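quick one before i forget lol
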Amino acid sequence: MDIELIAFKIISGVGSARSSYIEAIAAAKAGDFERAEKLIQQGEENFAEGHHAHQQLMEAESKGENVATLLVLHAEDQLMSAEAFKTVANEFIDSYKRIVALEKR
């Protein structure tokens, strides 16, 4: 198993996801909620790729392989960061929707 390659797959997938989540916040701020939702969906797809790669490492670890490296720890940190950004992005999108609704009153 090429642990470094899998770690880079995690970093790439979740890094793209995090970028999509940040773009979604900007789209919502501009009032483009349809684009924001599409970016969240795109982010979820990218996140799933990274999560799948992480699952491969977890399965290898459960079979006794030592997968703990600094690169893997970094990849896991990026995974958690992207997940947090998704939560924040969804909160911002909801808030911007409420602001727009209130401004229309």
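fyi The longest helix spans residues 70-104.
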